[in-house]
Amino acid sequence: MILLSFLLIRSHLSYATHRPVEIPLQGLLADLLWSDPDRYIKGWEISARNVGYVFGEDVILEFCERMNIDLIVRAHQVVDFGYEFFADSHLVTIFSAPNYCRQFSNLAGVLQVDSNLCCKIFQLKPK
């Protein structure tokens, strides 16, 4: 798979960011950290955990088209096989902690992007 452009989110580097940062329960920072995709909705809905939102495939498709992004890569959400595609493969969740908290039997996923922007996903099994 060759990508023209992609966006990686979950954490960031910025000279202007002062650490540690207290995460508010609402606003841009909370939304970036706690919002999740949901196959069963359209648009945006408030998350059941009362921080961030859930969003439908339509949100991702419209955002990618408007921003000319081929793929959004995100983390932070347990997925059974280490990775999971969403919104016609315009968003992928990569979760790299196998057997998370010893409560899930999930695999770990690792995304490798080479200098030509070719992507490979590897799965790692817990011991």
Helices and strands in order:
Layout: E1 6-8, H1 28-34, E2 36-37, E3 44-46, E4 53-55, H2 57-67, E5 71-74, E6 83-86, E7 91-94, E8 108-113, E9 119-124
Parallel strand pairs: 1-5, 2-4, 5-7
Antiparallel strand pairs: 3-4, 6-7, 8-9
What is the domain tally?
Answer: 1
Strand order of the largest sheet: 1-5-7-6
**Low-pLDDT windows of residues:** none
State the CATH superfamily name.
Metallo-dependent phosphatases
Radius of gyration, in Å, reads: 15 Å
Count the DSSP helices.
Answer: 2
- The tally of strands reads 9
For this structure, what is the CATH class?
A: Alpha Beta
Give an overview in words:
The protein is α/β, with parallel strands linked by helices and 127 residues long. The chain has a single domain (6-11, 20-124), classed as Purple Acid Phosphatase, chain A, domain 2. It contains two helices and nine strands; from the N terminus they run E-H-E-E-E-H-E-E-E-E-E. The chain has helices at 28-34, 57-67; strands at 6-8, 36-37, 44-46, 53-55, 71-74, 83-86, 91-94, 108-113, 119-124. A four-stranded mixed sheet has the order 1-5-7-6. Strands 2-4-3 form a three-stranded mixed sheet. Strand 8 and strand 9 form a beta hairpin. The longest helix is centred in the middle third of the chain and has 11 residues, at 57-67. The radius of gyration is 15 Å and the shape is globular. 13% of the residues are buried. The mean pLDDT is 86. Keywords: Hydrolase, Manganese, Metal-binding, Protein phosphatase, Signal. It is an enzyme of class 3 (hydrolase). Residues 1-16 form the signal peptide. Residues 1-127 form the Serine/threonine specific protein phosphatases domain. Its EC number is 3.1.3.16.
